[in-house]
Amino acid sequence: MKMKLQALLLSALCLTLAVGQARASSVPDAPADAPVAMQEVVTGGVTVPEVVSVRDRRGWTFSVGESEHHGITVTAPDGQVSRWGEWGGNPGQFRYPSALAIDADGTILVAEIGNGRVQRLAPDGRPLGMW
Question: Domain of 90?
Fold first, then answer.
């Protein structure tokens, strides 16, 4: 299960990195004899979600993706809001976090576009590692 979650998160990171830089103008024109359905692969560009949120088993909500905030917004079950992290490349710091997941033991996995990595955090926000 943990490997599937990590594979899914890595896939999301790769897609985020690839799609985040894609533009409609970068898609080559299809050959003139191509079926009509293939003539326009992308119309108007591709976007990624602005904010991604997940809730753990305890009722805490973790959100990333607000472009001006390089961290994680944490909302407690009672509604109190706090922030984890800041801009940077060290453990516990973030550059454009764009996806996250929580595994069965409560470990939080955060994919970052700017640092091109995935960070592992304890349920209390302590950095546990990255790859």
Answer: 2-25+48-130
